């Protein structure tokens, strides 16, 4: 991600103190504290968007660490309003969103990023990256992640293609 993105904003919450060393070690990373972290992940999305000053923004949960750099590169080539990567027809992370589209999140009555994406429609790009689906919420997930990282070469990458529109089921006002 760091080779593709100009700046990285990390929204912290409960464990913010454990991450205080990051800006010193990685000057291109800025930490932003979310005092409302107990309100859920979407509150962190809102805080991040309020602090992002970019034309396009990757939204990436911190618990999906195995996304290949090439996935970011492929996605960055797109000019879609909202783009999701897919692996074997299953969408994952990160979400790439244009700034003007992201501003609608701040203006709307949305309860989650997922709700916003479904409402506004999106495009997908098929990748050869199972890492977009590797969520690490539980101890067993870390074992699976460790196994994945040992087996998969994160430098090899297969073909990709931009796929169909996923239009909202109703008109967007």
TrEMBL record:
Top-level EC class as recorded in UniProt: transferase
UniProt organism field: bioreactor metagenome
MobA-like NTP transferase domain ranges (all copies): 2-107
GO molecular-function term, one example from the UniProt record: molybdenum cofactor cytidylyltransferase activity
SUPFAM superfamilies for the chain: Nucleotide-diphospho-sugar transferases
Keyword field: Nucleotidyltransferase, Transferase
Entry's EC annotation: 2.7.7.76
Protease recorded as keyword: no
Keyword Nucleotidyltransferase part of the UniProt annotation: yes
One Pfam family here: NTP_transf_3
Identification of the protein by name: Molybdenum cofactor cytidylyltransferase
């Amino acid at each position: 991600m760091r080779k593709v993105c100009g700046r990285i904003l990390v929204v912290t919450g409960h464990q913010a103190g454990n991450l205080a060393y990051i800006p010193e070690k990685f000057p291109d990373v800025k930490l932003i504290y979310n005092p409302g972290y107990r309100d859920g992940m979407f509150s962190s999305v809102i805080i991040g968007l309020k602090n992002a000053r970019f034309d396009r923004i990757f939204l990436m949960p911190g618990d999906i660490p195995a996304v290949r750099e090439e996935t970011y590169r492929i996605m960055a080539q797109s000019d879609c309003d909202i783009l999701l990567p897919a692996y074997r027809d299953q969408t994952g992370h990160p979400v790439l969103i244009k700034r003007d589209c992201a501003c609608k999140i701040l203006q709307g009555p949305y309860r989650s990023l997922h709700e916003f994406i479904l409402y506004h429609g999106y495009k997908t790009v098929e990748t050869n990256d199972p890492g977009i689906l590797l969520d690490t919420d539980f101890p067993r997930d870390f074992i699976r992640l460790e196994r994945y990282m040992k087996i998969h070469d994160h430098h090899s990458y297969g073909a990709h293609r931009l796929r169909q529109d996923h239009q909202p089921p109703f008109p967007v006002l």
